[in-house]
């Protein structure tokens, strides 16, 4: 590596510059130093001009859209249609009918239900009479107890609204 540096040093010392070459190199360096700020300003101004042209183009598009909208509003047919759609206005002699589609109908299935699964064997007359009998044979609440109050305080560990509480035991109903 030392030999390589010696070779470069030998080569550099073998170069001979005349006075004219030194003057030309100094003038070129001075020209670059003088022109470079102007050149960077020129490039910056060209960039700003391009940004401003884009801004003007976007503004012109917005103006064209607004002009088209204004031309629509000058058309009486368009104004009438907007009054009907937005404000629910009608012409004299017409009747306004508003249909509100707020009921979502369930999607119907193509499958036919199995009649064996759909049949529920119940006797509604027996259920009705059982309801009358159970309502008539219950004891009346005490007169001093409020009718809307819960008679027993609930245990927070068995709160039915709590999703983490254990499920209540199933009650058997007579049939």
UniProtKB/TrEMBL annotation:
Which domain of life does this protein belong to? Bacteria
Q: Where is this region: Disordered?
A: 131-175
Coiled-coil-forming residues are 42-69
Sorted alphabetically, which InterPro entries does this protein's record hold?
FtsL/DivIC
Q: Name one Pfam family in it.
A: DivIC
State where composition is biased (Low complexity). Answer: 134-160
Keyword list (alphabetical) reads:
Coiled coil, Membrane, Transmembrane, Transmembrane helix
Give the stretches traversing the membrane.
20-43
Q: What is this protein called?
A: Septum formation initiator
């Amino acid at each position: 590596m030392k030999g390589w540096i010696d070779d470069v040093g030998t080569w550099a010392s073998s170069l001979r510059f005349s006075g004219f070459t030194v003057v030309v190199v100094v003038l070129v360096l001075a020209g670059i130093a003088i022109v470079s700020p102007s050149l960077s300003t020129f490039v910056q101004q060209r960039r700003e001009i391009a940004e401003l042209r884009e801004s003007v183009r976007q503004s012109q598009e917005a103006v064209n859209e607004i002009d088209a909208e204004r031309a629509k509003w000058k058309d009486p047919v368009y104004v009438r249609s907007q009054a009907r759609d937005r404000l629910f206005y009608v012409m004299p002699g017409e009747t306004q009918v508003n249909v509100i589609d707020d009921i979502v109908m369930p999607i119907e299935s193509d499958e036919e239900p199995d009649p064996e699964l759909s049949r529920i064997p119940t006797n509604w007359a027996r259920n009705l009479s059982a309801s009358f009998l159970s309502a008539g044979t219950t004891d009346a609440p005490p007169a001093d107890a409020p009718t809307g109050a819960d008679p027993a305080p609930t245990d927070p560990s068995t709160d039915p609204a709590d999703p983490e509480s254990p499920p209540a035991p199933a009650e058997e109903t007579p049939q």
